[in-house]
Specification:
single chain, 260 residues, alpha+beta, Leishmanolysin, domain 3, 4-stranded antiparallel sheet, 3 helices, 17 strands
Length: 260
């Protein structure tokens, strides 16, 4: 076993190494400098790795006894798994990259399920353990990859503010879950972004301005943050009722004809 296992067994951070098996649905992370959305390159190999490259006694979602098959995809790194930037592809054509600083990496509006914003003022922030969800009056859908995303941020009034869909969400302590429920593109987007520490993101900027991060404190009530509701309207309800009544009438007419 290598030092990676030692760090894992103590519950310590192993970044830039990682222990999430690359599988569907994809669960992304952030690079250490938060410059990019990234994936862990931990995969299942066709045969057990040499003993010196086996780093795990157990892995989430891996049957007991099969850990020896799992390691990083890069042999030059002795199969130590680590997080890597990546590209999204469609039919083997690169669609966009995962570096936060480039506006060209913004997802198309109809695929921006987590309300991300790429650009010079953006960094990578973790999501909660729950998938992001989109709802309309007719359907609900969950996107099959999540885990982290790129968002603009600001350092103001002693706090880190994460900007999501043009709303500014202040962070009150590291690890705070910012619950997002906002309408965009005709869909209600629901998910959560996790606050890093103010010092990590803002300390340097605040020092240049002669300011400092405020001490951590309890987050305000949920009503403090913006929250949209899905409004489907009475017209939609009336249309649905009329459609059901019409279907029932047609069924009754068909039943009456068949009984003659």
């Amino acid at each position: 076993m290598t030092d990676i296992f030692a760090f894992l067994s103590r519950g310590r951070s192993i970044h830039p190494f990682c222990a999430k098996v690359k599988r569907d649905p994809l669960q992304t992370e952030c690079t250490d400098d938060r410059s990019s959305v990234a994936l862990c390159n931990l995969i299942r190999h066709e045969s057990p790795l040499p003993r010196q490259y086996q780093n795990f006694d157990s892995l989430a979602h891996v049957p007991t006894g099969e850990e020896a098959y799992y390691g990083g995809s890069v042999s030059l790194a002795d199969h130590c798994p680590y997080i890597q930037e990546f590209t999204w592809r469609s039919r083997n054509v690169v669609v966009r990259g995962s570096q936060c600083q480039f506006e060209d990496n913004n997802p198309k509006p109809e695929k921006n399920f987590a309300l991300e914003s790429y650009g010079a003022e953006s960094k990578c922030f973790d999501h909660s353990e729950h998938m992001w969800e989109e709802r309309s009056c007719r359907q609900t859908r969950e996107w099959q990859h999540w885990g982290s995303g790129c968002y603009k941020y600001k350092c103001e009034k002693g706090r880190l503010h994460i900007v999501i869909a043009n709303y500014s969400y202040p962070c009150f302590y590291a690890g705070q879950s910012l619950n997002v429920q906002l309408m965009a593109g005709g869909w209600l987007h629901k998910g959560a972004v996790i606050c890093p520490s103010c010092k990590e993101m803002c300390n340097e900027e605040f020092e240049q301005r002669g300011e400092r991060c405020k001490v951590s404190e309890d987050s305000p009530p949920l009503s403090f943050y913006p929250k949209d509701e899905l409004k489907c309207g009475s017209k939609a309800a009336v249309h649905l009722v009329n459609s059901l009544l019409l279907a029932i009438a047609i069924s009754l007419m068909a039943a009456g004809r068949s009984s003659r």
